[in-house]
Amino acid sequence: MEDLYTYPQLAALRGTEAWEIPENYFLELPNRIMTKIGIADLTEKIDTVEPVEEHYFDSFFSRLKGRIEAEEMEVETPILAAIPKDTIWQVPEGYFERFAANMVENVEEKAIAPLLFSIEKPVYEAPSNYFEELHRQITAKMEAAESTKIRTFVPNWSKRALNYSMAVAASVILVLGGMWLMPKGALENNQDFAPNFSQISTEELQQAIEDEHIDEDLLADVLPVNYTNEMVKDLPEVDDISEEELLKYLEKEGEL
Amino acid sequence: MADETLLIQLQTQATKNQAFEQLVKIYQRVLYYHIRRMVQSHEDTDDILQNTFVAVWRNIDKFRGDASLKTWLYRIATNESITFLNQQKKRVHQDMEVLENAIEHSSSGQSVVDGDTIQEKLTQAIMKLPEKQRLVFNMRYFDEMSFKEISAILETSEGGLKANYHHAAKKIELFLTNGEWCLT
């Protein structure tokens, strides 16, 4: 402090503001500091942005031009512009993924069979209007199938009865046919005989039935008593079918 | 219309009829030629094609979309064709030669475009192929399906299909070139 007294001019300045500062400097200082921080952050972010892809700017102008043209087209030809370009030429799913493999396969095929792959493929022809009529024919076929199914309804247990009856009828025909072709009086004389059914033709059997050469007594001799009744007595009559059974049958048939 | 939309309409009672007609229109030609190449005659093809669509109509509600609609349709058509061929073999007891002869001289004819010898030979060669090889060959050569698609339809491995196809192509090539038929 003594030095100040040695320099009286300096001592006179003591306690006064030696530096002039702009008006409102301190008032505005916080804002200016915050602005500076913001700029620093932004600069930092700009430094971390990934670089644009190579040649981005080379094609920038042509892309810009294309966009301007597209916008103009949208105004001049709105319908055409509305059609998505990428859906016009569609390729099968996975086409490009399999393209290379397909190329190899095609080359291999041509190497195996060069002549086969050089000729024009044969063309099959369908009658004229066939495809135009097909849907109608299928519909008609389905309708016909539905009506036939109902008309030919025979329940399973009834089918069994029918099969039994047919087996009995076939046996009767064979036996009667054999007897009809047997030497006359052979049965009455109780002769031993063995009819050879293989020698009887279908026509001969049919003729026998048509001529009604069926003797009920003979039938009684060759078949057990009430044979046919025994075979079918436990089977229900077709008329006994309930509506419920009918519906069940139709549902089952429908699944097939 | 996309198959997904069509399927929804087919499984909805109110839109089923209309969607079915649409389905027939979309797939009738591809399925017709697929069947025709297997059985040759138009009359048989017509029967099988109609049966195929009838089966589709009856079973569409059970279709859960595990495969694509196209794959499913091809599978039904293929099964119907194979069933028909097996029944025909049993019923008529014809060997392949007699069958070919009958087809060639059938009243419906129309097997191939007339007058093109190499194409007629190709058709003959295809008919000589075993059933599986013929099926795979037709699907690849005519329908230009990928092995992946064929594999989905026939439910067989792609490797097996490729082997079948290459055998078939080699046999046909040999037949077209020299008129020789390899039985293996």
Describe this structure in words.
The complex is a heterodimer of chains A (about 260) and B (about 180). In chain A, about 0% of the residues are buried. The N and C termini of chain A lie far apart (about 120 Å). Helix content of chain A is about 60%, strand content about 0%. Chain A has twelve helices and no strands. With about 260 residues, chain A is mainly alpha-helical. Chain A has a domain at about 155-255. Residues about 190-195 and about 220-240 of chain A have low confidence and may be disordered. Chain B has about 180 residues and is mainly alpha-helical. Chain B has two domains: about 1-110, RNA polymerase sigma factor, region 2, helix turn helix motif (Rna Polymerase Sigma Factor, Chain: A); about 115-185, Arc Repressor Mutant, subunit A (Orthogonal Bundle). Chain B contains nine helices and no strands. In chain B, helix 1 (about 5-10) crosses helix 2 (about 15-40) and helix 2 packs across helix 4 (about 70-90). The termini of chain B are far apart. The interface of A and B includes residues 120 and 123 of A.
Poorly predicted spans of chain B: 106-115
CATH superfamily of the largest domain in chain B: RNA polymerase sigma factor, region 2, helix turn helix motif
Distance between the termini of chain A: 121 Å
Oligomer: heterodimer
Mean pLDDT across the residues of chain A is 70
Q: Write the element-wise H/E pattern of chain B from the N-terminal end onward.
A: HHHHHHHHH
Q: Calculate the terminal CA-CA distance of chain B, rounded to whole Å.
A: 45 Å
Annotation field: number of helices of chain A: 12
- Which consecutive residue ranges of chain A, at least 5 long each, have pLDDT under 50? 190-195, 222-238
Could you tell me which chain pair has the largest interface and how many residues each side has? Answer: A-B, 27 and 38 residues
The number of E-state strands of chain A comes to 0
The level of helicity of chain A is 55-70%
Give the count of structural domains of chain B.
Answer: 2
Radius of gyration of chain B: 18 Å
Roughly how many Å is the radius of gyration of chain A?
A: 54 Å
Q: Mean pLDDT across all residues of chain B, rounded?
A: 85
User: Based on CA inertia axes, which overall geometry of chain B fits?
Assistant: elongated
Q: Percent of residues of chain A in beta strands?
A: under 5%
Broad CATH class of the largest domain in chain B: Mainly Alpha
Q: Into which percentage range does the β-strand content of chain B fall?
A: under 5%
